[in-house]
């Protein structure tokens, strides 16, 4: 548990973490989601037919994983996974002077909601806004006005104009809390923690010893007689499994992030030296999926509607070209390339300005 030892030589009275520890903890928490998303994307790309759905429900898979891991950490270590990693714990601000400074059951449940559900809801709202913005900017003004009448579109329109103010207010409140924390006007660095009466403190030596005691495998088999010990094996096994998974997760995540970084820096080098190299051969054509949409017989036909393409648009993940309305609608419904089933998003659409008459 070397990560807990770094702060041991600091004075015991200085229990409040510095803003740097908090920022480090927050950036680790926000790095977990992209890392898991990256792993799911690798899995989905390896076999789009079999694993494509994993990428489409990636946010929900992360939500479940996050719930399990954060619940385990809150229950056993009194903080989130990233807080525990940086040697921090959550304490009840109302009972701060008390020996029993731990979280109440109610606060633990609220903490779990703030840690897991709030970021998920914010992510979904961000995605919804991005989609509304794309629709607004897609230039399809005629259909935009036709749809204007429906109740749902009206709501979407209101959301499109209101959400930026909400987002701005949300971020500003967080920034103000950080500033107040730096200048010691506030004991809490986050409005979410303030609302539920919690602040962050460094783990004490006693906390770390208690955690190590709890984690030692001898303590897991409770009971005095052999029979009692035997009967506690299934629950102990579950505990060991969850704690191994929870402890191993950061390692896996950092390993994946490292691979991502490694390949991206490799790419950079390759780009720098590209002038000295001969022009590379074009990549092979992506393989159509077994149950994917069939390619049309003539290259000017759109694979989806089979008519001559209007507004030709390439999908960057596979390189195939479709009508813009056809592929946009398909991506919103299925989230993958119709031909190869590679995971794709509407961000990957590239408008092609070719002279159709030639
Ligand atoms: Zn079409």
UniProtKB/TrEMBL annotation:
Residues 26-265 form the Pex N-terminal domain. Pfam families: Pex2_Pex12 (PF04757). One of its GO terms (biological process) is protein monoubiquitination. Its main location: membrane. Pathway: Protein modification; protein ubiquitination. It is found in: Peroxisome membrane. The chain crosses the membrane at residues 158-183, 237-259. It comes from the Eukaryota. It is a multi-pass membrane protein. InterPro entries: PEX12, Pex_N, Znf_RING/FYVE/PHD. GO terms for molecular function: ubiquitin-protein transferase activity; zinc ion binding. Keywords: Membrane, Metal-binding, Peroxisome, Protein transport, Transmembrane, Transmembrane helix, Transport, Ubl conjugation pathway, Zinc, Zinc-finger. GO terms for cellular component: peroxisomal importomer complex; peroxisomal membrane. Belongs to the pex2/pex10/pex12 family. Component of a retrotranslocation channel required for peroxisome organization by mediating export of the PEX5 receptor from peroxisomes to the cytosol, thereby promoting PEX5 recycling. The retrotranslocation channel is composed of PEX2, PEX10 and PEX12; each subunit contributing transmembrane segments that coassemble into an open channel that specifically allows the passage of PEX5 through the peroxisomal membrane. PEX12 also regulates PEX5 recycling by activating the E3 ubiquitin-protein ligase activity of PEX10. PANTHER family: PEROXISOME ASSEMBLY PROTEIN 12 (PTHR12888:SF0), PEROXISOME ASSEMBLY PROTEIN 12 PEROXIN-12 (PTHR12888). This is Peroxisome assembly protein 12. The lineage of its organism: Eukaryota, Metazoa, Cnidaria, Anthozoa, Hexacorallia.
């Amino acid at each position: 548990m070397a990560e807990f030892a770094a702060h041991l030589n600091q004075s015991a009275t200085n229990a409040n973490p510095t803003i740097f520890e908090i920022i480090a903890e927050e950036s680790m928490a926000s790095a977990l989601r992209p890392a898991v998303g990256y792993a799911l994307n690798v899995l989905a790309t390896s076999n789009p037919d079999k694993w494509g759905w994993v990428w489409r429900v990636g946010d929900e898979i992360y939500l479940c994983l996050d719930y399990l891991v954060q619940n385990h950490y809150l229950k056993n270590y009194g903080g989130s996974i990233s807080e525990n990693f940086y040697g921090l714990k959550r304490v009840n601000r109302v009972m701060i002077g008390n020996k029993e400074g731990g979280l109440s059951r109610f606060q633990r449940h609220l903490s779990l909601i703030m840690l897991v559900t709030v970021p998920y809801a914010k992510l979904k709202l961000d995605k919804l806004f991005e989609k509304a913005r794309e629709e607004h900017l897609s230039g399809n003004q005629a259909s935009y006005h036709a749809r204007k009448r429906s109740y749902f579109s009206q709501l979407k329109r209101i959301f499109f104009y209101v959400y930026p103010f909400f987002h701005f207010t949300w971020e500003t409140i967080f920034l103000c809390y950080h500033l107040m924390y730096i200048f010691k006007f506030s004991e809490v660095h986050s409005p979410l923690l303030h609302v539920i009466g919690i602040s962050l403190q460094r783990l004490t030596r006693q906390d770390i010893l208690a955690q190590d005691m709890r984690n030692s495998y001898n303590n897991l088999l409770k009971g005095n007689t052999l029979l009692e010990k035997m009967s506690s094996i299934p629950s102990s096994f579950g505990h060991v499994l969850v704690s191994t998974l929870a402890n191993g997760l950061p390692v896996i995540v950092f390993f994946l992030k490292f691979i991502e970084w490694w390949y991206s820096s490799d790419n950079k080098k390759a780009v720098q030296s590209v002038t000295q190299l001969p022009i590379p051969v074009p990549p092979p054509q992506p393989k159509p999926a077994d149950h994917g949409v069939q390619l049309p017989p003539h290259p000017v036909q759109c694979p989806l509607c089979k008519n001559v393409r209007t507004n030709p648009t390439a999908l960057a993940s596979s390189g195939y070209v479709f009508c813009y309305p056809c592929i946009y609608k398909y991506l919103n419904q299925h989230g993958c390339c119709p031909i190869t089933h590679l995971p794709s998003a509407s961000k990957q659409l590239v408008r092609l300005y070719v002279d159709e008459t030639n």
